[in-house]
Model the fold of this input.
Amino acid sequence: NAGVTQTPKFQVLKTGQSMTLQCAQDMNHEYMSWYRQDPGMGLRLIHYSVGAGITDQGEVPNGYNVSRSTTEDFPLRLLSAAPSQTSVYFCASSRSGANVLTFGAGSRLTVL
Amino acid sequence: KQEVTQIPAALSVPEGENLVLNCSFTDSAIYNLQWFRQDPGKGLTSLLLIQSSQREQTSGRLNASLDKSSGRSTLYIAASQPGDSATYLCAVGVISGTGNQFYFGTGTSLTVIP
Done:
């Protein structure tokens, strides 16, 4: 049972480039979410989804897009990367928003 | 907006000591509260989940309490061990938009000295 899988683990981008962080879970969880973790700021919610076809904004959604076409996958897209998006990104899922969150191992992104 | 605070930011204790980690939140209208552990360079591992209707949860040497009216939760670790060294984070769940949003504290970094 793989749990929550994030790819890539590390990525370096130049300002203005685009990329997609992948998140997949094999637990049939309805709820999926993306966080960023910055020193001294804790984890902040970017976007979340309560099921296929449904997404919503979190605390810091600007500069990020998401979609949820399947229950298993919840990719996070950066359309035009900025240095302020340098961070560690975590994907998390749960059976519903009221249940235990299971986190992926994280993706470290550096924007130069 | 929900604000979650964890004090102290860092704590160092000798092995075997019992300890309490604190989490406070500004809005008592929460759905649940979770405690997580994070090891350096790793993801978060859930330790305990307390629903808003509950007062406490226990798992092994860990006990978490919740007092919604005062906006506080504590994580009690009994007989600490060096393997307990990690950062402990609390997260408050609130109902928002189409589902739940979770607000995290910045964590308490715990070091247990052998």
Notes: The interface with chain A takes residues 1, 4, 31-32, 34, 36, 42-46, 49, 51, 89, 91, 93, 95-107 of chain B (CB under 8 Å).
